[in-house]
Amino acid sequence: MNESKRVEIAWPSLGITVGAELDQRNPSLATCLWDALPYRSLQGHALVAGYHLYHLAPVHTLLHAPAEYRVDRRTVPDGTLFCSRLQHLGIKYGELTEPMTATPVGQVDESDLEALAQAGREVWHSVYATKEPVMAEVRRAGGPGGHDLPRMPVGDPQLNQLVKEVHAETERIWLDPPRELLDLHEGRIPSGAGSYETVLTTLLFVNGETRPLGYSCYGGLVRAALDGMPMPWLRQMTRQLAHTPAEFLGYCGLDRLWDFTQRLLTGLERLNSHEDFIAVMGHMALYCNCLGGWNLHLFPWQAGEHLRRIQGTPA
């Protein structure tokens, strides 16, 4: 890897580009990111933690790459870049309130911090109000843009076919919202999910199930396999963790996710190596995390505009 690892993070629709340097605080994570460049992704914004941008990076190894150095996100300078096991590239651009440890990989140039803050404000407006997607492009400084989603092969033919289809679907929805989620957010729910014809309740539960399915279930299974958990245990944990949330999400309209999950569960006994297990679960993780990113973008957060945090202490 080059001595100097200069990157550019651009938001073309906003006309904003910032430069940054990847550093050696977490060299394994920085290498994962550097090797995956260039890529594009839907830009998200923290909804609870404060002034923080993040997006899903198409990097399977972020699920498990070692992190040597951790910080409290609240204490580091604005412009700090983070990579996480949630497959996120995050950027702090102002005050954060959540006491979360994080793994820094670089720093935005001081001269670009004002532009970064402007991007943050624009992205917040996109996520909270307009719902017009903002795409991020991350590339090596001076290098070309572009985009590619890597695919990991699997030895078993049937499961390899499943991975090919999951990969193709992830590619299809990476930069365009999934039709199933658009229908759900527009109130077209064939199953009738939503008591008394409500939609917001269903959207809330879908959001609450999709994110942990990718972050905790599939991401956790990848890490358990790399830690050496025996294959019979891994298969049993997959059955225990994946079935119920995926079945519920299928009922709410995510039929493709439920179909993929059923085929995965049916084929578990054919997964005999940790390498194949990691490949299948890694692709399911990226797919679920992509669904989760779009769901966070589409969710009508402005419905809570009248609910505001009270400043100060109670009388």
Q: How would you sum up this structure, described in words?
A:
The protein has 315 residues and is an alpha+beta fold. The protein folds into two domains: 136 residues, Cyclophilin (Beta Barrel), CATH 2.40.100; 145 residues, no CATH class. The chain has eight helices and ten strands. The chain has an eight-stranded antiparallel barrel with strand order 1-2-9-6-7-4-3-10. β3 and β4 form a beta hairpin. α5 packs antiparallel against α8. The longest helix has 27 residues. It is globular. The mean pLDDT is 95. It comes from Nonomuraea solani. InterPro entries: Cucumopine_C.
Core attributes:
single chain, 315 residues, alpha+beta, Cyclophilin, 2 domains, two-stranded antiparallel sheet, 44% helix
Describe the structure concisely for a colleague:
It comes from Nonomuraea solani. The protein is built from 8 helices and 10 strands. The model has no long low-confidence stretch (mean pLDDT 95).
How many strands in all? 10
SSE succession: EEHEEEEEEEHEHHHHHH
Strand content: 15-25%
Strand order, sheet with most strands: 1-2-9-6-7-4-3-10
State mean pLDDT (0 to 100 scale). 95
Number of helices: 8
Overall geometry comes to globular
Termini separation: 58 Å
Secondary-structure topology with pairs:
Elements: E1 5-11, E2 16-22, H1 27-36, E3 39-45, E4 50-56, E5 71-72, E6 80-83, E7 88-96, E8 101-102, E9 104-108, H2 113-130, E10 135-140, H3 157-174, H4 179-185, H5 200-226, H6 231-251, H7 255-266, H8 274-298
Antiparallel strand pairs: 1-2, 1-10, 2-9, 3-4, 3-10, 4-7, 5-8, 6-7, 6-9
Helix pairs in contact: 3-8, 5-6, 5-8, 6-7
